[in-house]
Design brief:
It is found in: Plastid, Chloroplast. The chain is of the alpha+beta class. It contains five helices and eleven strands, in the order βαβββαβαβββββαβα. A five-stranded mixed β-sheet has the order 1-2-3-5-4, covered by helices on one side. The protein has a four-stranded mixed β-sheet with strand order 6-7-11-8, with helices on one face. Strand 4, helix 2 and strand 5 form a beta-alpha-beta unit. The longest helix has 20 residues.
């Protein structure tokens, strides 16, 4: 078993000043624009907001600031995971605009990560190389582990968030329901019935494994239930879309909470 190397930093350590125009979200006919400038190590942003934005309770990227948060800092996680099998670099901005820059070596997984960005309004950057000449298993797993770790970083102490998310997404004949809790306790219940073994070159067994890996490192309780569907592509895509919207709901701020932890215990622990 190869021991992975992680490169990550605390969200409060570094500041970032943009030196290039802010990338626009993907649209029809548009090429992909990197969500972040490539950097060798983890970093976090501190965005400057104007007095007008601050008075309106808006952060530097147009999203609501956490109650009691005067910095307007974005919630960003960055992880590098390097093993003998894969080399994965992930950055996620929870307060983004839906920009995706994903190149995993697995075309169908790239398409699903685009859905995560677009429907969650997260900025998602994933660059990965791996032993896909064997199969997609190791890359699929390590990408999900890195995304889960980046989510864990970006959520911090989870103060002020909604915590719970619930969304049902249809795609033609398919419909998938996702319920999640950013509880700090990893658990997955996956009720997908995907009729074919592959979509393109992607082994459909890897869908559940992707979410299990993400759950393990993020500390998330996740329930996925297929309500309808016959087309494998539609079922999986509906799943990722529902997950993106449920995660967006759970990570957004509840302004009535005034920055408190959404738990009667007063803490949402990863352990």
């Amino acid at each position: 078993m190869t021991i992975p190397q992680f490169v990550a930093t605390s969200p409060a350590r570094l500041s970032y000043t943009p030196t290039s125009p802010v990338p626009k979200p993907l649209g029809k006919g548009c090429c992909r624009v990197p969500a972040f400038a490539a950097r060798p190590r983890g970093f976090s942003f501190r965005l400057r907001s104007s007095p007008v934005m601050a008075a309106a309770g808006v952060g530097g990227n147009g999203s609501p600031t956490a109650p009691g948060d005067a910095t307007g800092s974005s919630r960003i996680g960055e992880v590098k995971r390097v093993t003998k099998e894969t080399n994965v670099h992930v950055k996620i901005n929870l307060d983004g605009t839906g920009v995706a820059d994903c190149s995993t070596g697995i075309p169908f997984l790239d398409h699903m990560l685009d859905q995560l960005a677009s429907h969650g309004l997260f900025d998602v950057y994933v660059k990965a190389t791996g032993d896909t000449h064997i199969d997609d298993h190791h890359s699929n797993e390590d990408i999900a582990l890195a995304i889960g770790t980046a989510l864990l970083q970006s959520l911090g102490d989870r103060k002020g968030i909604n915590r719970f998310g619930h969304f049902t997404a249809p795609l033609d004949e398919a419909a998938v329901e996702v319920i999640l809790d950013l509880s700090g306790r990893p658990h997955l219940s996956c009720g997908l019935d995907i009729p074919t073994q592959r979509v393109g070159t992607y082994d459909t067994q890897l869908v559940e494994h992707f979410f299990q890996s993400l759950v393990n490192t993020s500390g998330m309780t996740l329930h996925i239930r297929q309500l309808a569907g016959k087309n494998s592509h539609h079922i999986i895509e509906a799943c990722f879309k529902a997950f993106a919207r449920a995660l967006r709901q759970a990570t957004e701020y509840d302004l009535r909470r005034h920055g408190s932890v959404p738990s009667s215990k007063g803490v949402l622990s990863r352990s």
